[in-house]
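Supplementary Note 3. Input sequence used for the single-chain structure prediction.
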Amino acid sequence: MVLQLLEKRRLVVFFPSVHIFASVAKRFSCPSYLRIATRAHRTNSPMDKVYFRNDSHSEELHINFRYVNADLKLDREFNFSRRMSEKIEDVLTRIRGNIEKEIFKKAKKGKNKSLPQESELLPKPLVDGKIEFLRGEQKLADITFIDMLGDTTDSLNLKILDRNFQVVINQPWVVNLAMPTNILAGFTVYPAKLEMQFAEKSYCKGSWFKARMPASGNLKQVKVWSYCGDGLSYNTCNEDIDYFLKLVLIPGNSQGQFGPSVEQISKREVQVGPGPCPFETRHCFTKQRLRDNSWRIVSYNILADLYADTDYSRTHLFPYCPAYALKADYRKQLIIKEILGYNADIICLQEVDVKFFNFDLQHILEDDQQAFKGLLAQKGICGEGVATFYNVKRFDLLETRNFNIGENIRVLTIFRDLWQKIQTNEKLAERICDRSTTLQLTLLKMKECEHYLLVANTHLYFHPDADHIRLLQFGLSMLYIEDMYRKLIKQLNLNEENQLAVVFSGDFNSVPECGIFRLMTEGFVEDDFIDWRSNTEEALAGVSLKQPFRMQSACGTPQYTNFTHAFAACLDYIFYQSDRLDVEQVVPLPALEELKSHIAIPSVVFPSDHVALVADLRFKLISQNAK
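The predicted structure, written as C-alpha cells, is reproduced below.
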C-alpha cells in the first residue's frame, strides 16, 4: 500500500537539495573537511542528477541526499559515511531503511492519516527493488563503489522508483559555509568560513539579501528577502542596521561548471558601527593607487587573536578596552577596512593568526578586485606569523623564503663566525636558538619596468631584557639578506645593480636609540654598544655588527607606533635602500589625542595596539643612481 502511494507521488532526489555525493581518500585517513557537516541549506538543485564527489586521497564514501515529498510533508537531508570497498547493495539498503524510518516517523505523529499504521508495514520493505544503480539499461549488482566508479561514469544512473538520476562526478561543492557572529554597519561582511571542493572563488556567484526578524521569531518563515548586492562580500550601511543578512552562494569552477546553491543566514542582525575611525582620516592620503615606478607599502602589526582575546589581555594588557572590541569578529572588520583603504601595492603584516590569514585576509585581498596574493610564514608551531601580500597586477613573484632564525644559527656557514662567539655563552645560545622568530623574504619584479624588490618582513623577540637577542636576530637577518642579495645580482643577470632594491619592514620591538636602528641607518654597531649588556648573564663581549646597504627609515622615527596604557614607543619601521629608492609620501600617523581618546589602543576604533606605517616609494632613475 505504501509502495503504491510512493509510486503515485513524485520523488525528489537532487544535489544538494536532493543530492548524493561520494568522496574517495586514503584508507582510514579521511581529511577533516569531509567530516564537517555543511552549515547551510542547499537550494535550487537540479532534480535530474545525482552528484558524486570523488577525492582521490580518500577511501571513505560520503553520501548525502535530500528527500523531498510534498504530499508526505517530508523534506529531510540524509547523510551516510561508508567505505568505497562496500557493495553498492549495502548502501542502497541503508538508504531505503532511512527513508522508511522518516515516513514512519511522520505517520506515527498522526499528521498523515492516509498512511497505514507502522505495524501494518513493518513486515514488508517499503521500497524494495525500487532503488538501484544502472549503467544504461543494465542493473548493477554485486560490485563495490570502487568497481562502479573505477572505469567510467558514462551512462551511470541512480534509479529511485520510476525516475533516473544522472550521476555527475566532481561538480563544484560547498563543504562548509558559516556567517560571522558580529556584523557592523559600515564595514565589509563575508563568510566566516567558506570551504569548497572542485570550486574556485573567482568563479563562484554570491547574492546578499536582508530581512527583519518576523513576529514569529523564525527567520525561515520570512517570505520576502530584500536584495542587497552580489559577490562573496558585501559592504553594509546604516540602512542595514537591525536586519539579518542571508548569503546565497553558487559554487563554480574555471570549466564553467556550477554546483548546487547553498544559503546561510546570519545569527545576529547588523549592529551599529563604532562611528568614524582615525584610520579613515588617513585614507584621505591614499585614495588613488600608484603606478609606473611608484608603489605603496604598508607595515602593520595587527595583534594576533591568541594574544588579544584572553583573560590576561582583558585584565592586564588591555583592561581599558571593552571585551567585545577585543573579539576577533569585531577587530577583523576594522582591520580589513583599514587595510583596504590604504590602496597599497605591498602589505607586510605581523602577528597574523593562521585562521585569520586563511579565512579572512585571503578571502578579501585575493579576490579579483583587490588582486593580491598572500604568503604566510608561521612562527614555528605558534598559531601566528608574518604575512606579505603583493598586488599581482603590479608584481610578479620570483621567489619566496621563510627562514627560522633560531633553527639555522648553528647550520648556515654565513653565520659561522657570529655563532662561534654566541655559543661561548651557554644561556645566550640556548635562549636565541629556542626563539621561533621568522624572517620572510619575497622577491618581486615590477610589471611596468625592469626593477626588482627584495621585501623582508619580520617580528623580533619582545622581551624587555632582550635588546641583545633582538640585535643578534637582526644582525643574522641582515647577513642572510646580504648573501641572498649577492646571489640574486648574478642569478638575475642584471645590467645595473640598481635594478634591485631591499626593503625591510616589521615590528622590531626596538626603539630608535637601540642598536637595530643604528645598524640599519649607520651600517655598524660597535662591540661595546649598550645593547650587548641588556641581560647581565647573557652579556656579549667582542661582538660587532655591520651591513653593507645604505638604509633609512621611510617613516622616520614617530613618537609612537605602539601605544598601550603601560608602554608607548616607536617599535615599527619600514627600512628602505636609500640609494635605490625615494620616499614620495609618508601617510601621517594618528595624533596623540586620537590614540588617547579611549585611554590607549586597542579600542573600539583602533583594532590593534600598533598603528600601521604607510609610505609611497619609487625607484630612482638609473642615471640618478650613477651620479
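The longest strand covers residues 60-69. The chain has three domains: 42-107+122-169, 173-270, 276-287+295-619.
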